[in-house]
Design a protein that fits this description.
Chain A: Belongs to the binding-protein-dependent transport system permease family. CysTW subfamily. Chain A: Its main location: membrane. Chain A is mainly α and about 300 residues long. Chain A folds into two domains: about 50 residues; about 220 residues, Orthogonal Bundle (MetI-like fold), CATH 1.10.3720.10. In chain A, about 80% of the residues lie in helices and about 0% in strands. Chain A contains twelve helices and two strands; from the N terminus they run H-H-E-E-H-H-H-H-H-H-H-H-H-H. In chain A, strand 1 and strand 2 form a beta hairpin. Chain B is of the alpha/beta class and about 280 residues long. With about 270 residues, chain D is an alpha/beta fold. In chain D, helix 4 crosses helix 5. Classes of the chains: A mainly alpha (about 300), B alpha/beta (about 280), C mainly alpha (about 270), D alpha/beta (about 270).
């Protein structure tokens, strides 16, 4: 073997190496490009009424009235509704989902886990519309009949449907994270005489924290972004909810309900509603990124 | 770093080229599909949509034509027909001034009655227009006040911007701002019907074609909601179904479809669909 | 004291799991009970008829179209992006920006993707309401899922594999293609399954980008209606819970088949090792 | 014990006369970010000898070993100064890391076979370097496995997963995998630390045989092992080379007090 062909082939390899590295970088940048395009288009459309047409942004955010046909655009009730619905569903969904994940990964007898884990994974793929269909056909009448309400379409119905919908996401993602915790951590803790449950809560869950955080972010995205299922059970009333039984209109629902029928300023205001939604999510992501960065140290 | 920049610019250029060629591919594609028959694009009202689909199904069997119908709401359909995105827009409400000003032509293809409906168990089955207004503006909040059971009234309305809602409010005589705040807002006739059918408290309004046994239609001023009563103008809650288009955008094929709808065959289909034909 | 706490916690774990299972079984059960009567050969393979009684074949085809196209685009991009983040990038501002963008994409509500798709792909790029516009929108939606799951899968590949391969004088690219990616396949597959679920389940974004034409698509530039959009429209417009449930059964079966296939593939791959 | 020292004594005497310097290290410094891990390391490693690197944990011996085939490149923020010269070529001046790593093979602390068959593991390197001919590959695999003294144990199960082997067998397949590249230098990073005594013995015997073909640098915790297998020994402490000499000299008459303390077990 002479030197030159090897060096030549190495040169080709280094070229491919560089090319592939840059190609991978480009792929990674597509997320950034997409985000920039989405933000650009939504903000451009959504800010037009405030920049060009002299609408007040403060009135938009804190206004209580949303009557597009009378030129009144206030999204405060929807902001409140979105926050309540998301927080409520997380309060119910996260513990149940997380405990289920722990159960499947740590405690469940193997044959049970072997059947259940894929079933839950399957459920992650169930279209949200079907949860809405179920919510409308079962949960709404159930609430109405058992709580003696004039209507079952309510904040609590939204919370329940969202909590159910996020279960599969939380369970599958957290389960993967928990299973990825090295056995040696558990053995180390067990060897110190800590009980199995103690080990799970003191060692395994903290070790799987970043994955669990990912699960929560994903399901929060799902909850806040859910539209079609929510439309069916929220009632979509334009009031600031004062109780769990009030019917509500979250931000996403507002957009979906009226987008088809909107034109001109009305349509731009729906994009503005999108901006509000967007800002919430960006802030949430930022906060969560900070939390997980702190947790990682 | 500079090299990376150059390289990314190169790649982006490449991506755009690919996209553009895909675009032109798309144009070719729609051209080639015209060999099989002309594609007529229609979009708009969800109330008119089901009727238009039925008409299109029949018409496609007669003619070499593909009709694409997108149910995206009256306003969006009208906007599409103004922009030329769709050849024809469907509307279940009258055109607004600025829409007329943009040069749209409208053709009434049928009439629709709007029916106020309640749960079948509701004892109230006759209301005046004014009572309807008081219900929807929240002045009357219990069925007892109207001679029914002691149940809170739950108002179900369509969303702001819906052609059906605009038409309903205009006839009954209240504005969107007056609508009772805690009313349920449902998108689509089916959703309203379903909501009312499963709730003893509820009252809503839907298109004629959606009425069935699951809900109770309410007489208005003692007049039943029937096609005859709409045509002889004794039933007050009715509106036209419109096709709107710009004359310069309307193709021969599009005109052909409209002619078919207005023909006796077409109007027969309208009647079979439970909607009120023109004559 | 500690024992009581242990028992209590263990009880909570059992209870939560049971609750999850009961809820999910109830939903599936409800959909099956409501919808199974409508399911037959003609329902699935029959052409749609707006006058009622027809099948859902056009929607099945449209759904397959959107899945295949979005995955064809998103899977390679997502995997390579994850590869960049995990294997190539040095920690720094660029990586932070990319991660932030990916995380943010995850959280964006699908209705906003719908708005964007309608403005960008449908109008600006002039694809019209079409399968391709919807698929490109879906591509962005599932990209973060593919990236994240692939990254998690890459993290589980032992560092010693990389060292072992590189020490033999192989390039990063060779190591990646021959050792790292094959080891990460099961994880990547689970990401693709999650993405398929997302595509199949998506309605808001598709509604605004693909339109609602209830006919067999002629190509990727046709406007069409996916199964999920169909079940949504059926619920909204005609309030037909049984038909919506029947479509739901079809959707669930498709997902089940996909999952089983993926599990089978990853098992086979593991055995081949 | 004594015979071992005598043996290595003999060979190093020969080395004085006819062995060449294979790797020459001059004033080599290495930093992890701000933290310096190696201080002015200078030593010559001779061709076809076994050079052992000993010292307490964290003394920099593994870091140094990984510098010889630039495995430290994988870690962000590593900075170096000074030279490592192999066959008159400064390995930090050339950009051809592939060529370097082809020439300098490595065996790791824990067996790190890929999740493939035994055959594919050994054939992996040659395949990546463009050898596709089946017969040629078969031959390389057999020779390498023989060279790693494991052929007889695995010849009937070449197509089964390599991860089914015992730890000691896996480590010898790792050595075969390294040999398959026909390297000139083999770096071994505590290759027996995860193995039982019998497997350790086998690997040590193997190292003894291999030195007629390869230049071997071995990091070890085990001083008896260093004494048994190596010709020369470098004692590392806190990132510095305290003493570097022929193994028998280091173990019998260390010049530095710290070396003596370490060897006699007073710390470490």
């Amino acid at each position: 073997m002479s030197d030159s062909p090897i060096e030549k082939s190495n040169k080709r390899k280094y070229f491919l190496e560089k090319l592939s590295g840059r190609f991978f970088l480009f792929c990674a940048l597509i997320s950034v490009i997409s985000l920039a395009l989405i933000i650009g288009f939504v903000f451009f459309k959504g800010l037009t009424p405030f920049v060009a047409d002299g609408y007040s942004f403060v009135d938009f955010i804190f206004g209580n009235d949303w009557v597009p046909s009378e030129d009144k655009f206030g999204v405060f009730p929807m902001i409140v509704a979105s926050l309540y619905a998301t927080i409520g569903s997380l309060i119910i969904g996260v513990p149940i989902g997380l405990f289920t994940a722990v159960f499947l990964a740590e405690i469940a007898p193997k044959p049970i886990a072997k059947i259940l884990s894929p079933s839950v994974q399957l459920l992650a793929g169930i279209p949200s519309v079907l949860f809405g269909v179920f919510g409308l056909a079962v949960i709404v009448p159930f609430l109405q009949n058992n709580l003696g309400l004039p209507k079952g379409q309510s904040l609590i119905a939204v919370i329940i449907v969202l909590a159910i919908m996020m279960l599969p996401t939380i369970v599958t993602v957290s389960e993967t994270a928990i299973r990825a915790v090295p056995k040696s951590y558990r053995e180390g803790s067990l060897a110190l005489g800590v009980s199995e449950i103690g080990t799970i809560f003191k060692v395994v869950i903290p070790a799987a924290k970043s994955g669990i955080m990912a699960a929560i972010v994903l399901s929060m995205g799902r909850a806040i972004g859910e539209t079609m299922a929510v439309i069916l059970v929220a009632g979509n009333s334009l009031i600031i909810p004062t109780s769990l039984t009030d019917s509500v209109r979250p931000l996403t629902t507002n957009i979906a309900l009226e987008m088809g029928y909107a034109a001109g300023t009305h349509q731009e205001m729906l994009f503005a509603t999108g901006i509000v939604l967007f800002s919430f999510i960006l802030i949430l992501n930022f906060v969560l990124a900070k939390i997980s960065a702190k947790g990682g140290q | 770093m500079n090299k990376i920049k150059k390289f990314s610019i190169y790649l982006i250029a490449l991506a755009i080229t690919v996209l553009l060629s895909a675009c032109s591919g798309g144009a070719n594609n729609s051209n080639s599909s015209s060999n099989d028959g002309y594609t007529l694009s229609i979009s708009g009202s969800t109330s008119v949509g089901p009727l238009a689909e039925k008409l299109a199904e029949q018409y496609e069997q007669k003619e070499e034509i593909n009709i694409e119908i997108n149910q995206i709401g009256s306003s969006a359909g009208i906007t599409n027909s103004i922009n030329g995105v769709s050849e024809i827009g469907m509307s279940s409400r009258d055109l607004k001034e600025e829409e007329v000003a943009s040069g749209l032509t409208e053709t009434i293809i049928a009439y629709d009655g709007i029916v106020v409906v309640t749960h079948p168990s509701n004892k109230v089955d006759d209301l005046t227009i004014d009572e309807v207004k008081q219900i929807f503006t929240g002045k009357v909040t219990n069925w007892q006040e109207l001679g029914g059971d002691d149940l809170e009234i739950v108002v179900v309305s369509r969303e702001d911007g819906s052609g059906s809602r605009d038409a309903f409010q205009e006839i009954v005589g209240y504005s969107s701002g007056e609508l009772i705040k805690n009313s349920i807002i449902a998108s689509g006739n089916g959703n309203i019907k379903n909501t009312v059918a499963t709730n003893k408290h509820a009252v809503g309004f839907i298109s004629f074609e959606y009425v069935d046994d699951s809900v109770q239609p309410i007489k208005i001023n003692g007049v039943e909601a029937t096609p005859e009563n709409v045509l002889n103008q004794t039933y007050g809650l009715s509106r036209p179904f419109l096709f709107v288009y710009k004359d310069e955008n309307l193709s021969e094929e599009g005109q052909g479809f409209i002619d078919f709808i207005l023909s006796s065959d077409g109007q027969q289909i309208v009647a079979e669909a439970g909607i009120i034909p023109l004559k | 004291m500690n024992k009581i706490k242990d028992h209590l916690l263990r009880g909570i774990l059992w209870f939560s799991s049971l609750l999850t299972i009961v809820i999910l079984v109830t939903i599936i059960g409800y959909i099956f009970v409501k919808g199974y009567k409508l399911i037959n050969f003609d329902f699935i393979f029959g052409d749609y008829s707006p006058t009622g009684g027809g099948g859902i074949w056009p929607m099945v085809v449209t759904t397959i179209y959107t899945i295949v196209i979005s995955l064809l685009i998103a899977t390679p991009i997502g995997i390579f992006a994850a590869v960049y983040l995990q294997e190539y990038a040095k920690q720094g501002r660029l990586v932070r920006i990319i991660r932030f963008a990916t995380e943010s994409l995850t959280g964006i509500p699908s209705i906003i993707y719908g708005l964007f798709g309608a403005v960008f792909f449908v109008a600006t790029l002039n694809f019209g309401m079409s399968i391709i516009a919807a698929s490109l929108t879906l591509t962005i939606i599932i990209l973060p899922v593919v990236i994240r799951t692939t990254e998690e899968a890459l993290k589980t590949v032992p560092q010693s594999y990389r060292e072992g391969s590189l020490a033999l004088g192989t390039t990063k690219l060779q190591t990646l293609l021959k050792v790292i990616l094959p080891s990460a396949v099961p994880g990547i597959l689970s990401g693709i399954i999650l993405s398929m679920g997302r595509i199949i389940g998506e309605s808001a974004a598709i509604f605004l980008t693909a339109g609602t034409v209830a006919a067999l698509p002629e190509g990727i530039f046709s406007s069409a209606r996916t199964l999920t959009v169909h079940s949504y429209l059926v619920t909204q417009e005609s309030g037909d819970i049984e038909l919506a449930s029947a479509i739901g059964i079809v959707l669930i079966v498709i997902i089940l088949v996909l999952n089983l296939t993926a599990t089978y593939i990853s098992k086979k791959l593991n055995k081949a090792d | 014990m004594k015979t071992a020292i005598n043996l290595s004594n003999d060979s190093s005497v020969q080395a004085e006369t006819n062995k060449n310097v294979k790797i020459s290290v001059n004033n080599f410094n290495l930093f992890y970010g701000e933290k310096q891990a190696l201080y002015d390391v200078s030593l010559d490693i001779y061709e076809k000898e076994v050079t052992a690197l000993i010292g307490p944990s964290g003394c920099g011996k593994s870091t140094f070993l990984r510098s010889i085939n630039r495995m430290n490149d994988l870690i962000d923020n590593v900075k170096i100064s000074g030279d490592i010269i192999i066959d008159n070529e400064n390995i930090y001046r050339t950009n051809d890391v592939i060529k370097l790593r082809t020439k300098v093979g490595m065996v790791f602390q824990k067996p790190n076979l890929f999740p493939m068959s035994i055959y594919d593991n050994v054939a992996y390197g040659p395949r990546m370097h463009g050898i596709k001919n089946k017969q040629e590959l078969n031959q390389i695999v057999e020779e390498s496995l023989r060279g790693a003294a494991i052929w007889d144990e695995v010849k009937d199960r070449l197509k089964t997963s390599a991860l089914g082997l015992s730890g000691g067998q896996q480590q010898r397949v790792c050595i075969a995998r390294a040999i398959a590249m026909k390297p000139e230098v083999i770096l071994m990073d505590e290759p027996t630390s995860a193995l039982d005594p019998i497997s350790t013995l086998k690997v040590e015997e193997l190292v003894g045989k291999m030195k007629k073909d390869y230049t071997i640098v071995i990091v070890t915790h085990n001083m008896q092992q260093a004494a048994r297998v190596s010709d020369r020994t470098a004692f590392f402490l806190n990132g510095e080379v305290v003493e570097y000499d022929k193994t028998d000299t280091i173990f019998s008459v260390p010049k530095d007090k710290r070396t003596e303390d370490y060897i006699t077990g007073r710390f470490g």
